[in-house]
Fold these 4 entries.
Entry 1:
Amino acid sequence: MADSKVASPTHSPQWYEDSLQLTSVPLAPSIRSKLQNAGFVSVRDVKGARGPIDLARETGLTNAEASEVIKALRLGIEGTALAGAKSASEILYEESRKLAVFTFSKDLDDLLGGGVAVGEITELCGCPGIGKTQACMQLCVSVQMPGAFGGYEGSAVYIDTEGSFMAERAKEVAQATVSHLVSISQFLPKHLSESGALSQFTVNEILDRVHLFRCHEITELLAVVESLPMYVRAHGVKLVVIDSMAFHFRQDFKDMALRTAILAKMTTQLLNLAKSEHLAVVSVNQITVKPDPASGVARLVPALGESYAHGCTTRVILSWESDRRMAYLFKSPRLPRGKAKFTVTNGGIRDVRGMKRQVDLK
Amino acid sequence: MAAKRSLARVAGLDVDLLSRLESNNFRTCEDVLTRHPFDLVELLDVNLPVAEKIVTCVARACCPKPVTAKQLLDSRTDDPHGDDDGSSGGGGGSSASSTRKTPAFVRAHLAPLDDALGGGVPTGSISELVGPAGAGKTQMCLTLACACAAPKRCGGLESGVVFIDTEQRFSSQRLAEIARAKFPETLSPAHAPDAASAERELESLTSRILVLTPSTLSEMLQRLNGLEEALIDRGVRLLIVDSVAALARAQFGRGQLTQRQELLGQIASALKQLAERLGMAAFVTNQVTTRVGARVRHAHDTAVRGGGGDTAGGGGDDADSPGSVTAALGTKWAHCVNTRLVLEGAEGAVDGGEGREEGGEGGVARGGGGGGDTAGDDGGARFVARVIKVVKSPRCPLVGFECEVYAGGLRVHGDRKVRVDPSGADAQGGIRGIYQGAVL
């Protein structure tokens, strides 16, 4: 492969490409073996070829196949080692402009650093009846709030695996939210209150923008996640709720290794989606009991296992503390652990004291 | 069943790809979707773009059609809710079935409870009734079956009911009695204007109720899976399982909890699918389980330990008090249930220990209610009111009512509300853990 060295373009450090063997690139085995038979071992060897025709001549691939190979090699490793890198200050700037999705409980929002964050997976775990589904419905409504009120004006996708979503209840939450915004709109500066921000924010409009996928089995859930990117772009979705992640995963699998693999795949897909489309992903998890052999005491832990626990960015555990609903921030890359009281009212998630949320007026 | 959908029925896959998939043992959509595209590249010997195209096509074929909440709301009607004062008259159900909309609820004809639940037992999801022995679970089931099968002119749905009776508790005599007492004008020969027609009505009512008696949990699952046709043909709007716990507890011992939970999950999944696709309500009953002693550290372990074992139960921080009771079958099952009702308290005329325990519960429930006029004290109370509570519902807040069992089944007193303590913290010896929280 002496001539390939000569032909190779001499720009930018490509040390990482040297080490990348063809075996670690997603190529069809038959094509890969042809390449290897012709002496192409690393990515650089292939890149050294002048072009697809050259490559095809040397390896016995068809021109179309050779062109595919070259495309496949570009995947993710094009450019320099620093491609796509950002400085922390750039990220800081981006993050400072990110809004969060309000939960409508001030305490809970504060705990979460302003609300459910965009670009992350936030997991809600909790015992049956604690209000996970309620929180999700609330978020579906509040993500649609007009920009004048600090909302996202986005649609919501609700992936329902348990059949808990109730349109009637969503309507109640939507009604309460609309009437709340109407009641505070008089305090808004004139240009905002008269801009007709609320004219689009009616109960029917809200319910029209909550897209519901009812998944009856794991395959359907996988299919939905697979098709989400297109759907999200088409409908301006800013919130994806999966209620719940656990239901199918806890009974459709005998092979735990497969379960872990699929969960990891799904989590990655969702995380990528959250980042690339700037949307918030909320996944609901169930809780399960884990016996502790040392003390003989059973502990209550979120379901789906330890490896899945790494998947979500933020994990919030909802639980009872005496009579109060309490949210514990269990894991977050940027916020301290803490807890906040919240309650579920007719109108949705609220503060315990019944305080009205202070809207930041500009 | 999307999982078993053959790849041959996936649009966008050409013959070449299909044969390649099949020769590599990819036969159903499930086989493809559980793999990463990189695996497909290796296994099928195709390019990455082709592998991704396969996944996209398969995903598109399997993806359930989204509906907006608005469409969902429009497709369901609250109609049975329309006239709720008439537990004996009116025609609420008739207009519901005349339109093509799916009613959102099956009315139980228990006015205050129906109102609290927003119209009745919700369709499309699983509702569960938990209660100790003798609390009136079967009575509630019979009442519901009766209300659902009742003729339209007395407010029923005149639809089919499937009653899966695992404990051999179904009594057709009692059913007939409830029907007569509940709808005397139409069904009781004594009250109806025409005795013969009342008999006929009663007969058609009872003929609409189909009773199945599976003897194992797996048999029940098989039957559920084969039930579709019958459910459609009979226009079934209500499926009752009385009770899930009995079979689960009989069939599986201590060592087989994993299998039990798996089977229960499959049953829950099957029930949900049937309920949602046929617009019917699934109503199951569950037993309670007792946890003696305080081997569990946290209050929340209770409900959970129930999942781990039937011996596990109430308890918690103050689990030292013996006889703390919780719903059986554990948290996994509790998560599967969409709406949970609790029926507690009973006439304490049963035998010693049990009656005592239940008396305790009832007494506490009353104490929680904050105003028991009959003062159901723990001590010597032989008669305590029954209480029915909504402890989990995506729709309505927690609420409890006093109720009683009479000739016409169950009767709920709307004026006597009982405060439901969400975490069950102050219910000393009451049914706890069912709704108890986790302190992690």
Note: Chain B touches chain A through 90 residues (CB under 8 Å).
Entry 2:
Amino acid sequence: MNPEALIMLIVAIALVWGGLVAAAVNLFRRPDQSAGEDLPHTPSST
Amino acid sequence: MSQAATKAPKREMFNSRNYFILAAIGSAVGLGNIWRFPYVAFSEGGGAFMIPYLVALVSAGIPLLFFDYAIGHRYRGSAPLAMRRLGGWTEVLGWWQVLVCFVIAIYYAAIVAWAAMYTWFSIDKAWGNDPQAFLYGDFLHLAEKPAVSFDFVPGLLLPMAVVWVVTLVIVALGVNKGLAFANLIFMPLLLVMFLILVGQSLFLPGALDGVNALFTPDWSKLTEPRVWAAAYGQIFFSLSVGFGIMVTYSSYLKRKTDLTGSGLVVGFANSSFELLAGIGVFAALGFMANSAGVGVSDVAVAGIGLAFVAFPTIINEAPLGALMGVAFFGSLVVAGLTSLMSIMEVVIAGVRDKIGIPKPVAVAVVGIPMAVISLALLSTTTGLYFLDITDEFVNKFGILAGAFASVIAIAWIVRKLPQLQRHLDRFSSFPAGKFWMWVVGLLVPVVLGYILYSEFASKIKEPYGGGDYSLSMLGVFGWGMAGALVVAAIVLTLLPWRRNAVVEFNEEHNEHEIAARAEGVTK
């Protein structure tokens, strides 16, 4: 592989997969507030 | 609470936010990730394409994902119901999205069925030495001239019927026992099969030449608006935004769900898979070029040609080809099936909300006729022609045009972006803020409008298919179908809602505002 292609491969992986890891860490380090909510309810706006 | 609301059928809910995330990723990761992204990236600048691609992801893809989530979650309905509660007449946009899904499901089932058959064919390489002749001759029995015939091919009819049965059963089982459970099995399976494929491809001779070709940047392309439009187009089509899927799925989320945090995971997971697919596909194409003694650009293709002609050729030559074939076609089946399920859910949910029937009944009265139409049009000797025209037109003048209309209507006519932004930010970890309003209200309509205009202009200038299709075929299955969706959407909007349906929405007094006040959240 030529150096330019290799750099772009690494940059793409770092940003996209890094983005996924960052998004997952952001989501899962906080408690899921919806977990304790009651299950089904009727439609709103009454 | 009024008498009417207490009589309304209970709305389904995902038992866990993580089920939703998995189902949303399953929907977003589809055939386009595997057979469209690698070729688009390669032909539109290689490594340099990653820049407009990432810009498009954060400036349009993820914001549009948030947009759909906010609509479905706040207004708690399938696309037509949520859109009705949002702005009254905007219900028509919801039906347009439902009808787009109706059309896509008709032909998408065929591709999943073909991939399933090719998974089986991979074991003994049933396509022989000439995969192209096998595909169009022995397998599809493709008619010589594009037309519509009801000349059925049993080898296509049976697998398609199985795909329909599986899909309809999963949808009928409901969001937890059906959709979530299926994704719980299918998504890890997809990842394992795809990792086997990528791992195997990377060790083939010539693989690195393929990856090199994919990532070698052509910086001059960045000055071409067409390349930027291609990046926004890829992100848009790949993420399953704008045609009701994410609206429907997010209507099954509990009130305090972290919408933006979940959306970021879905958006980046979709692109992560796409990037992996690019590496795997081009490693395999590098091997194919190496074996044939030609350049990678000579073998690079997308779509049907990549899956059903190039890959069988690669599988013929590669060591452990059967394993590679099962991994590749198995991935297509699973990625396609999880997307098809979500597309069907949009249609079923829309009909259910409007006429108030139980889910299994809706699956029977809507899903079975759809399966029959699908089998009648796609399991014949002319199915591929129908698929090609319909896919092109429904994507451009169904999904894209519908999304453009929705964004314009919601941002500029009924002006609900401030409510949606507040809704997104209330219980979410990642602030959407004013930036989100600006991109959805301004940048997204400009970009979608530009792509839509270019598509329209190019199809007027030169009929689709480069002369292969008669104008009457393009008129009926292309332009006519796209126009009929809008007319049918208007008709469906005019039909009455079921008795006791709650189609009004009070922005100040609703379940979300009540919950927020109870929590002491003032936003």
Note: Chain B touches chain A through 56 residues (CB under 8 Å).
Entry 3:
Amino acid sequence: MTAEIVLQIFRFGFLLLLWLFIFAAFRVVRADLFGGRTGRVASVPPRAAAPGRRKSKGPKMLVVTAGPLAGTRITLGDQPILIGRADDSTLVLTDDFASSRHARLTNRGGQWYVEDLGSTNGTFLDQQRVQGPLLVAPGQPIRIGQTALELRS
Amino acid sequence: MSGPSTDPRSAGAGPAAAPAPTRRGTELVMLGFAIVITLAAQAIVDITLTQSLRPELATFGGWFTALWVVMHLVVRRFAPYADPLLLPAVALLTGLGLTMIHRLDLAGDQVGAAATREDAPVQLVWATLGVALFVAVLLVVRDHRMLSRFAYTLALVGLSLLALPALLPASISSVNGAKIWIRLAGFSIQPGEFAKICLIIFFAAYLVDKRDVLALASRRVMGLELPRGRDLGPVVVAWMLSILVLVFERDLGSSLLLFGIFVVMLYIATERASWLVIGVGLFGAGAFLAYQLFGHVQVRVDTWLDPFAYRDTGGYQLVQSLFGLGTGGLFGAGLGGGRPDEVPVAKSDFIAAALGEELGLFGLVAIIVVYLVLVERGLRSSLIVRDAFGKLLAAGLAFAIAWQVFVVLGGVTGLLPLTGLTTPFVAYGGSSLVANFALLAILVRISDAARRPAAVPAPPGTPPRATLGEAPTEVVRP
């Protein structure tokens, strides 16, 4: 009788153990998805040019302020800037939430516009989802997945 | 690292100042969990069947633990950013496989058959060889991209391995009608298992080269992007190759495996669903032809359609497997409580049925979910890794595992015709186990490359910052 009970404990206990393993594995997966890189926002890049150094019309560079690439700067020219996971993007993101061709920044007469290229998870300018081309002011955060960018003068 | 961290990753994941978590601590904990489950399973089997723990259990436990400790240390040293779930999932699957093989060994002893061989220790030796190969691959392949340089060499090696048993005399290469073995001096290896990996590497390198041609030059017919005739070349070659394997080696499983992998990799590389349609069409044609031409295929299909009509002949194995699964029910008979030895070849081809009988639906689904985790981690590495070759290779390897599990479980449960593929990491069989450890090593290598942070680490000592959502945007005034 006791042997029978012990066997039943083994039987269900083992199944429980198996599913606990899976539960633990899922927790790791979850931590990867949500607790991951957002929680590990690296650091603000050293403050750019001292204020009031010069009067300039348009922004001069694109700075990544958060996400795995935080601290990266790209000097702005006339060429559009392609952002995405694809190798040939101007800014190659490693973000899992970014699409291969995620967004584009284009220069029109000294002003920069951001455009979403049909990405899965969207591009956000100041918490607002980018539908058509939107004018980006310097300092306004552009958010792509876990990466945040802004234009600096 | 950033103040009161709510990040679950920081728990035991390396030094606090690391720029990106390596998650090796998580891996170690999960490995420990897998080892505990394995040892618990072994102990339950022993107690249920013999009412005592066998003295060798300590040796087994030590050896088994040592294997994973070695792998963990090697990964920690040479692939520090590798995915933390790959090793634990494999550890659990290997452990459950070893337990079930040991359990079937015991069943053989009880029946009293004189010639029963102790297969579990042999499998443990194979696992050790597998770990050695894992370490070797991880040491030699420091960057997965170097594999693409040997693409054509590997294709040649793969094809030779695949063709070798067909060319050897049947006395060396044939077991139960399938000519897929090389039997030498008491050892038998299935070179096809290694060919599989070589060919996946080749497919990945080839498709990265050619995918633009395959994807772009196409015409639209009835809503499907059909490729040009001459671009069909590779898929037709792969198709004929798998048919040749089928004809000369009478190996339904490998042929299905190779063709499925190739079609899916083609689909992933080109993102054209038309390749799937073409693949299914070619497969249908091939399957129809094979059914018409080959007796052994007909037997397989007939027993699949109605196993109970052939329960005394070709369908016996499948019928026993179905009875076993039925006996197991939802919660199983308990480890050691069933009669999985009633199924012929339970240790290799039908180990899933044995597990299903003793662990029940809940246990079998748990095992499938562990495979799912393994495959998901592979596909995820494929998503994150930045080079196209790595993406395709990881996806191909992960899909190979998924496809193999699907085909095997489909066969065991009567959903698909029986094919003779092995359940990866679980089933008895040296080549399969060793080859799959090599596959795992490549996946670990790619996941390490995928999760390694980009080369711009945060400068130390800079103040931490809250997530962007809460932080005020800092405007730098001109």
Note: Chain B has a mean pLDDT of 83.
Entry 4:
Amino acid sequence: MTTVTAVAATGGLGSGYSEESLRAAVTAGADFVGCDAGSTDGGPYFLGSGNPKVSKAAYRRDLRPMLRAAVERGIPLLMGTSGYAGARAHVDWAAALVREVARADGLSFTMAVVNSELDAATVRRYLDRGRVHPLGESGPLQAGTIDRASRIVAQMGSEPFEAALESGAQVVVAGRASDPAIYAALPRLRGLTGGPTWHAAKVLECGAACVERRVHPDCVVAEIGESDFVVYPPNPAMRCTPQSVAAQTLYENADPFRFVEPAGVLDTSDCTYEARDERSVRVSGSRFQPKEPYDVRLEAAELVGYRSTAIGGIRDPLVLGQLHLFLDDAFASVRRKVEQSMGLVDGADYRLSWRVYGCDGVLGALEPESRAGPPHEVGLLIDIVAGDQEVARGACAIAWHTVLHHPVRGWSGLVSNVAFPHSPPHADLGPVYEFSMNHVMALDDPLEVVDIALERVGG
Amino acid sequence: MKLYELAALVRSKNAGPFALTIDVMFAGRAEYVRVRDSGVLDAGGVAALYGVPVEAVRVFHYEPALAIKVSMPRTVPSGSRLDGDVYGGQFHAPLVMLDVPPLPAAS
């Protein structure tokens, strides 16, 4: 019976793992090493800007042992959503680091760089052919949304990884991919196309998040078969339990029974999780139902402006006793002053908002807690977004200065109401993006929107 | 009892940029069943607490993990201008202190 042993190096490249764990897992007989290298979790900035989330140093540190282990053992290394958002800029950045590490360590291999960023014209063509459909509550995709997007990526399935491996690549640096696709590719090439492959892949994608008590990010191993899979951490200090693996299955997915992939749906409703021994868990009963059409999720980020913020604390009990009245009044004054001195109107030329941490800064209108008395201190975050950075900065400077000296009922004379920890009190946060697509695009061929470039690294 | 006294973990997280999911997990089956059957995490109650329509809230009972999962659309996408929680990691907070009624006395 076919078994494929998969090693997930860590849940997110750059977040770290134990080299010892990786060595133990790989030398025990791994068929490949995989690593999810990105996410939408950090918000739209990374896709919009093309910038990575982690430093080169952290990426390089995580890449080096994986690359060495895979090349020395002659097994594939598969990375998905490289560089954090998986757009072309991210993939190029990650591939350059792979070349750099290979050169430094004298490693040679064939690398496939797989891109799934789409240009606007391509997405418009699919839209015109009726091949783009909304998810959830989203309406039909508008042509304007496509044109305004800074970047658009498609979440590729396992097929581009499979095609890269079949073309002779040992190392695959892929752009935006469904997380399980990274781990499903090689088992599928070996004939393991069913539920256990996809379920194991789903558990693997977060690395050691499936253990009972994850002390630090680390590796995890799955032995994938036709009717079940077994998962365990190579680090003897950690263990998987039936509940910890089941819990990972439901992590960050809206539905714990159905996981939609480009090629079909993983159904876990009849799964059983049983302890194989003290540290490993066998999962059986997972099913995979292929679906028509094959479709890929689109992700896009749209530039909505440039942000400046100021953060400060308020401690004066008289201000805190009338806080919301005080702030409403102070920010009304901010709006007047910005209009007087810059000729700009809130809502039209810039957008002002603020949060009061210590009050309802996290939950806003959902905050159920109503205090009997005022808090002893609060943090105030002033947030300005405008069409350009100069305007945002200028309005923010007026805002913090106005709130600072806004008169307080109960005190007579000039007051300074906010303790700012920084000079300048305002900071430019740069471009602000928003996720702008929640749609899928139907394909006739899983490879039709990716390009796979093969190269020889290290001679 | 409060929900946190019965649960091993109450957590929330984005399920993609447009949805939130809350996991309420238990160490023992008795606590899981007690909360599940109490109705405090039914769609109606959760919808009221989060200010979303009841048909937008989905509640799952996932026995293998001794978990109750509650999913709903985000009112604003992750990281958009007015979002205050990019990872969606603190949306579970209103549930932590929920009162779970005692089990009805066995007859």
Note: The two ends of chain B are 22 Å apart (CA to CA).
